[in-house]
Each structure stands twice: as structure tokens, then as C-alpha cells.
Specification:
Length: about 250
């Protein structure tokens, strides 16, 4: 019996690290599971959440962070997908969190107890260090450049990313999806007008913060979007040209 145990330990020691990782999260089952609100499932066809999370590499048991969660669209899917050994913390700035959003997030927690959420002032954004395996920012990184003085909302992208980088475990995944802006123009002005951001700006920001670019998916690209309209324009809303990036924190 002792010899068998020693052989098993030796085999595990020689096994590639990738083989010892947790299994991929069952994101398709999480998306199709009953109970998600109709307002969320109506967005699935345009957002392709199962394909996006499969590309990004969410895994069972991950401790995940959903930044700018809104009403918890991705947070709920991830909470179901990581399973009971995993968890999801969702964050919103208070400027973007009305009573309807709070009610929706409380309902997500009722359906998925491993989902929790917090709303803070943007100026008070803070996270525990090396706490998360997976971080998601869906259609909102551009909002770190957005100013809303009447609600006292302002962020500094570099400071935001330093906090996020420190919160991710070494080797952890950083998933970013956002609306494409054409190159050129001052970033805050472009964001204010169109709610879009140049992908090159995003990549440069994240790499400057210490993240390593891993790969890109064309899953949500739309060549029919010419980037000249606000993402809220009815002619393009829900069908914008979007980039899907994956970064990692180096080990």
C-alpha cells in the first residue's frame, strides 16, 4: 500500500501543471440553466457568453471577480459555472447602481449563494491582494475614462489597473470585452461621446500595469459597425463591433 502511494505521488509530481488544473467551467449549462431573468437571457444571442467564457478559460472552483457588474449578467453565469467550490464577487461603482440594480443583484444572490456584490464610490475602489483566479470586465473598461461630475464619478485608469493587477493571483486570467473605437482622438473625449475605446489603448494600458497579453478572439467583431455612432444608438445597440481580449498576470 505504501509503495502504491509513493508511486501515485511520483506520478503527480511528473504530471504537467496543466493536467493538475481544475476542469473548465460548464459555461453552456450555466447559460441554459433555468431561473435567469428574461431581460438577461434576451441578451445572450448578441453577447455569446458561453463562447466568451470558454475562450477566456473560466474553470470550476475559480474565485472570480466581475467588475462593473451592472445587474449581474456575467456574475450570475460565472457563479453557476464555477460551481459550489468557486465564488463570484461583483463590484459596481455607486454612481452606476440604482435601486433596480441593487434589487437585481440581491436576486442573483438568492439564486446563486456563491455570488456576492458590493458597491463603492469609484474613488474608494479597493480589492484584496492575490485573491482572484479570474477577473472579468465586460463592456465597461472604457468607463474608467468616463467622467460624471454630477454623481462624483471619476477614475484614473492606471490606478484602477494597479489595484486589479494586485488582486489577481499570479498566473490568473484577466478577461476584457469592450466596444471598438476607431484610432485617434483623446481617449476621455472619445469615451464621453461614443462609449467606445480603441483596442490599442486598452492593450497598452494593461501591459503598462504588468499584465501579459495572451490572446484575442474575433467572436464579437462586426464589420458593419463603422464606429461613428454611440453604442446606445438604436441603429447599432446590441450589435456593436467588440474586441475580446485575454491577459494574464505573470507567474
Amino acid at each position: 500500500m505504501m509503495m502504491k502511494k509513493l508511486m501515485l505521488i511520483s506520478a503527480l509530481a511528473l504530471m504537467p501543471l496543466a493536467a493538475l488544473k481544475a476542469a473548465p467551467a460548464d459555461v453552456a449549462a450555466a447559460v441554459s440553466a433555468p431561473g435567469r431573468p428574461a431581460a438577461a437571457t434576451a441578451l445572450d444571442a448578441g453577447r455569446h457568453p458561453a463562447e466568451v467564457l470558454r475562450f477566456e478559460g473560466l474553470r470550476q472552483g475559480d474565485r472570480a471577480l466581475d467588475l462593473f457588474t451592472g445587474s449581474g449578467y456575467y456574475g450570475e453565469i460565472m457563479a453557476r459555472a464555477v460551481g459550489p467550490r468557486g465564488s463570484v464577487l461583483a463590484w459596481n461603482p455607486t454612481a452606476f447602481t440604482d435601486n433596480d440594480a441593487r434589487a437585481a443583484l440581491a436576486a442573483v444572490h438568492e439564486r446563486s449563494p456563491n455570488f456576492s456584490f458590493v458597491a463603492t464610490q469609484a474613488s474608494g475602489f479597493a480589492l484584496p491582494e492575490r485573491a482572484f483566479d479570474f477577473v472579468m470586465i465586460h463592456l465597461n473598461y472604457h468607463d474608467t475614462y468616463f467622467d460624471l461630475p454630477r454623481r462624483q464619478y471619476h477614475m484614473e485608469p492606471d490606478a484602477f489597473l494597479r489595484t486589479v493587477f494586485n488582486a489577481l493571483k499570479p498566473g490568473g486570467t484577466m478577461a476584457v470585452v469592450d466596444h471598438v473605437a476607431s484610432p485617434g482622438g483623446e481617449t476621455r473625449a472619445v469615451v464621453t461621446r461614443f462609449h467606445r475605446i480603441d483596442p490599442a489603448t486598452v492593450r497598452a494600458d494593461f501591459e503598462r500595469a504588468g499584465f501579459v497579453f495572451d490572446r484575442e478572439s474575433n467572436l464579437l467583431r462586426n464589420p458593419e459597425d463603422d464606429h461613428t455612432k454611440s453604442v446606445f444608438n438604436p441603429a447599432i445597440r446590441g450589435r456593436t463591433d467588440r474586441f475580446v481580449y485575454r491577459f494574464r498576470r505573470p507567474r
